[in-house]
Write a structure and sequence with these properties.
Largest sheet: 3 strands, antiparallel
Oligomer: single chain
Radius of gyration: 20 Å
Order of helices and strands: EEHHEEEEEHHHHEEHEE
Helix content: 25-40%
Distance between the termini: 15 Å
Shape: globular
Number of helices: 7
Structural class: alpha+beta
Number of strands: 11
């Protein structure tokens, strides 16, 4: 973190939130994490009757829309060398996008939408950014390896996420955990 984001004075750490939330790579990583690793159900009431895969749904019926399906739609999220189901830190930088620009309604809705838009989304984002900034300023991190669900070390990296067990339940569970070693930085 640069001095214009985090500064120390009087034994306290001060974060410039305005500068922090304006960092393009941090913004992109945050949005990519929401896009790929969050899965929430969005309830909607149909205004018109529609047929989907042979199922007839009537106007007034309630449906649940999966954010995961929209957030991994190949027509929206594919980029050369970067499939929609793979993490790409620069995805939102590459498309020169932010949370509202250049996406059609329904392409990206990690916070819900309409009257159900999460009222804490901005505070939550600032909390995540502040926590990341403080951890990076105060600690050095070293990758150690991967462990499986039983805690045994494994040489292979995560093969993906267990979407079947996590669909529309919030955070999607990885198939493996990452071990890191954290060391407090010298003051």
């Amino acid at each position: 973190m640069t001095a214009d984001v985090v500064r120390e004075s009087g034994g306290k750490t001060h974060i410039s939130m305005d500068t922090l939330v304006s960092l393009p790579l941090l913004q992109s990583v945050y949005l990519e994490c929401l896009r790929l690793y969050m899965s929430v159900p969005i309830p909607r009431r149909l205004r018109n009757s529609v047929e989907v895969d042979g199922y007839k749904l009537s106007a007034g019926d309630y449906v649940l829309i999966s954010s995961h399906l929209a957030h991994t739609n190949e027509q929206v999220w594919s980029a050369q060398g970067h499939p929609p189901n793979a993490f790409w830190a620069e995805r939102f930088m590459h498309k020169n996008m932010d949370e509202t620009a250049r996406l059609a309604p329904g392409d990206f809705f990690p916070y819900g939408g309409g009257l159900n838009l999460c009222p804490g989304r901005l505070l939550g984002k600032q909390e995540v950014f502040a926590a990341v900034a403080l951890m990076l300023v105060k600690f050095d991190f070293e990758f150690v390896g991967y462990v499986d669900k039983e805690g045994r070390r494994t040489a292979r990296g995560p093969e993906g996420f267990d979407f079947d067990k996590c669909e529309s339940r919030g955070m999607i569970t990885p198939t493996l955990d990452v071990l890191v070693r954290a060391r407090r930085k010298a003051s």
